[in-house]
Amino acid sequence: MPIYEYQCTKCGEEFSVRQSMGEDGSKLNCPKCEAGNPQRLVSAFFSGGPGRSEISGSSCVGST
């Protein structure tokens, strides 16, 4: 299950929730102030695996 980040529209608290992709967060409450209907935040996604620790690409650093 993916982890989604939300922000409370009342107090601004940010929190993460593990939920299925089909859920929209409308049934969630803020863990700080208990307000409902938090806003889903856009999160970065990283997919890596064994042997993928190097970054490939070209660079002009060090060239003359």
TrEMBL record:
Transmembrane residue ranges: none
**Database matches in InterPro entries:** Regulatory_FmdB_Zinc_ribbon
Provide an example Pfam family for this protein. Answer: Zn_ribbon_8
Q: Which SMART domains match?
A: CxxC_CXXC_SSSS
The Putative regulatory protein FmdB zinc ribbon domain extends over: 1-43
Identify this protein by name: Putative regulatory protein FmdB zinc ribbon domain-containing protein
Q: Which organism is it from?
A: marine sediment metagenome
Q: Which residues form a coiled coil?
A: none
